[in-house]
Automatic annotation (TrEMBL):
Keywords: Acyltransferase, Transferase. The keyword DNA repair does not apply. It comes from Hoeflea poritis. It comes from the Bacteria. CDD domains: NAT_SF. InterPro entries: Acyl_CoA_acyltransferase, GNAT_dom, YpeA/RimI_acetyltransf. This is N-acetyltransferase. Residues 13-163 form the N-acetyltransferase domain.
Length: 163
């Protein structure tokens, strides 16, 4: 009997805390999701900062392929998502949701009050994910992102109340 797809997709990847040794793979994932990849060194430098933490989605088994990662920072009760990327091959399988869930569990355990993020107002996939989690827009930054395609695009600043 074939397992239901929801069950299969939930066991294929495990969500684990990010370590320094994950940064090269995280850089590759970042490059698959964004016009300018953060380098291995940039991600290592972020993760080395005390308030920064992250999670990887890692395929269980021998190959242990990474499916996505998230980096966040918590300072004095206020947190922000620094970046999140899921490999294009594994998108829309619940990994982004699970990575964000791991961040939220960590922040609630730490007693954080709110979580902020910035997102391009044309990034429909990310906006749908964040709205499903419960984020709402608090402000806009016009002409914020330079995607290399001419006109700069607007950033939405979104917040989730963790109280
Ligand atoms: C945004 C991103 C992280 C989402 O990750 P994902 O693993 O594909 O998302 P999930 O499968 O967990 O989706 C969870 C929910 O988000 C919404 N969603 C995600 N991708 C979507 C899409 N392409 N279109 C519409 N809704 C989408 C849906 O509500 C989805 O729930 P559902 O599948 O039950 O309908 C992924 O698209 C990505 O890495 N994009 C490139 C990098 C990026 O833009 N990062 C965010 C920068 S702010």
């Amino acid at each position: 009997m074939t397992a239901p797809s929801l069950f299969r997709r939930n066991v294929e990847f495990e969500i684990v805390p990010m370590r320094a040794s994950d940064c090269a793979e995280a850089s590759a994932l970042h490059g698959a999701g964004f016009a300018r990849a953060w380098t291995d060194g940039e991600i290592q430098a972020l993760l080395a900062q005390e308030p920064v933490f992250g999670f990887m989605a890692r395929q269980s088994g021998r190959r242990a392929q990474p499916g996505g990662f998230v980096l966040a920072r918590l300072v004095e009760g206020e947190a922000e998502i620094l970046t999140i990327a899921v490999h294009p091959r594994h998108q829309r399988a619940g990994i982004g949701w699970r990575l964000m869930g791991a961040v939220l569990r960590h922040l609630r355990a730490e007693g954080a009050a709110s979580l902020f993020l910035e997102v391009d107002d044309g990034n429909d996939a990310a906006l749908a994910l964040y709205r499903k989690i419960g984020f709402s827009k608090v402000s806009e930054r016009a002409a914020y992102y330079d995607n290399g395609g001419g006109a700069k695009t607007t950033a939405l600043v979104m917040r989730l109340d963790l109280g």
